[in-house]
Amino acid sequence: MKKTKYVIAAIVVVLLVISLFTLYENSKRTTFNEVVLKDLNVGEISSLQMIKSMNENEISITERNKIKEIIDCLSLIKLKESGLSTIEYTDSYWITLRDDDKRRFGITLYDNTYISIFKYTENQPNLTFSYKITNENEIDVETIEKWFNN
Question: Which domain does 84 fall in, by range?
Fold first, then answer.
């Protein structure tokens, strides 16, 4: 009888630890929409600048439908908080979202596996967020790459 109580107590403790771990891991998950688009209306983006780091190729996009296409691609990204100190990548894309000539967000996309998001603020320090991309198929870098080939 005493042994049964200890077994039940051990099972309850293990289940509690698993539940807390699951809650903690899920709290670190988010989306591009929740990090960026909750603070920025896509229609307010006046320009989008992209730099491909490998060759320093730079383009600037001001046409609303083209900006929307790129934002639509990014909006599918699912994220998990992560440090970037040990990542390996082949190429990166630096994307700056501007609203009336003010930088609002800077995005660094490392291949299609990691992303850094910089939120530019006027009256407080800029904020930096680092994430691992958790989408099953990661993201479609070809949508971004095709703008450099036009």
Answer: 30-149
